[in-house]
Amino acid sequence: MSSEKATAKPTSEYAVACRDLRHAFGGAVAVDGVDLAVAEGEIFGLLGPNGAGKTTTIRLITTLLPARPGMVEVFGLDAARHQMAVRRSIGYLPQQLSADAALTGRENVELFARLFDVPRSERRERVGEVLSAVGLENAAERRAQTYSGGMIRRLELAQALVSTPRLLILDEPTIGLDPVARDGVWERIQEVRRTTGMTVLVTTHHMDEADLHCNRIALMHRGRIRALGTPSELKSGLESGATLEEVFRAYTGDQLDEPADGFRDARRTRRTASRLG
Ligand SMILES: Nc1ncnc2c1ncn2[C@@H]1O[C@H](COP(=O)(O)OP(=O)(O)OP(=O)(O)O)[C@@H](O)[C@H]1O
Question: Which positions fall inside the ABC transporter domain (predicted)?
Answer without folding.
Answer: 16-247
